[in-house]
Design brief:
- The chain has nine helices and eight strands.
- The protein has a six-stranded parallel beta sheet with strand order 3-2-1-6-7-8, with helices on both faces. It has a two-stranded antiparallel sheet with strand order 4-5.
- It is an alpha/beta fold.
- The chain binds ligand BV8.
- The site of ligand BV8 has 34 residues, from loops.
């Protein structure tokens, strides 16, 4: 099976769904989620840091982990893979639905529209407790994490943590795209996090072809009709060129 055969599948598809994970942004210099546990956080599992319980147990440690990741993301730009997906969608309006687990906003910065961001975004914050009248975030708040000066309510990253529900409308749209596509490209995900990873099986069960793009083996290789062993930035441009 070559790139050309998969290109043929893409050309023959009326509807293409794309599911991306942290590997999509690796060539932009964003550490993959598993790699984000370097340095100070190397001794913590992501499932412990990226949780409400982990945040409540040590708000400053979790806040600082996100601050470090946000800082790293300030200097990165979309790579050729992000741009290829955005260009393809522009040339073929309405044909591609992009679902991402990533919180880095790089698909949006590459020009992709209507991105279904299942896990939120790392740029925005929200309140840990339901905000009261005193909780206003207009002025920058002091603290690591920032807190409401009146009631002490903490700010937290506006991402979906482990154990938290995904935004229902976004997840529903992603499931509909998986059910109705003829082809799903699964790019740069270990396939370990659910329910996002389950979308590949949803597509396969609905009769779509599934192609995995990943330089390493992943949990979703078993669901794939074809695995392309390579990286997002090298595979997507030739795959999506007309
Ligand atoms: C929920 C935001 C329920 C935070 C993230 C079994 C079934 C169903 C659920 C579960 C289950 N067991 C446990 C669960 C619960 C849990 C879960 O899935 N746990 C895992 C660890 C087993 N799921 C949840 O908690 C979800 N919520 O189920 O809610 C519920 C129901 C009712 C009421 C309340 C609750 C919420 C999950 C969301 C967690 N948040 N992100 C943050 O980012 O800080 S997930 C996080 O992992 C990132 O979003 C990341 O994108 C995502 C998945 O990881 P990957 O993207 O795959 O990244 P990874 O580093 O793992 O892999 C990178 C891949 O890229 C590798 O394969 C590598 O080979 C490849 N690669 C490297 N370089 C390149 C490349 N590929 C291409 N090109 C390259 N250059």
């Amino acid at each position: 099976m070559t790139l050309d055969a998969v290109r043929g599948w893409i050309a023959a598809a009326d509807r293409v769904a794309v599911l991306t994970g942290a590997g999509m942004s690796a060539e932009s210099g964003v550490p993959t989620f598993r790699d984000a546990q370097t340095g100070l956080w190397a001794r913590f599992r992501p499932e412990d840091l990226a949780t409400e319980a982990g945040f409540r147990a040590d708000p400053q440690r979790v806040w600082d982990w996100y601050a470090q990741r946000r800082e790293a993301m300030r200097h990165v730009v979309p790579n050729a893979g992000h741009l290829a997906l955005a260009d393809y969608a522009r040339r073929h309006p309405g044909r591609l639905t992009l679902v991402t687990q990533n919180v880095d906003g790089l698909h949006q910065r590459a020009g992709s529209e209507g991105v279904l961001a299942l896990h939120g975004n790392i740029v925005d914050d929200t309140w840990l407790e339901a905000p009261r009248a005193c909780c206003t975030a207009q002025a920058p708040l002091a603290g690591r994490p920032p807190r409401c000066p009146t009631c002490g309510n903490l700010r937290r990253p506006a991402v979906v943590w482990f154990g938290e529900m995904l935004p229902l409308a976004t997840l529903d749209a992603a499931e509909r795209a998986a059910e109705s596509c003829d082809l799903m490209l699964v790019v740069g995900t270990s396939g370990m996090v659910h329910p996002a990873a389950g979308l590949a099986q949803v597509a396969a069960d609905a009769g779509a072809r599934v192609v995995v793009l990943n330089p390493h083996p992943s949990e979703l290789d078993a669901v794939a009709d074809q695995v392309l062993r390579g990286t997002a930035a090298t595979l997507l441009p030739p795959l999506l060129a007309d």
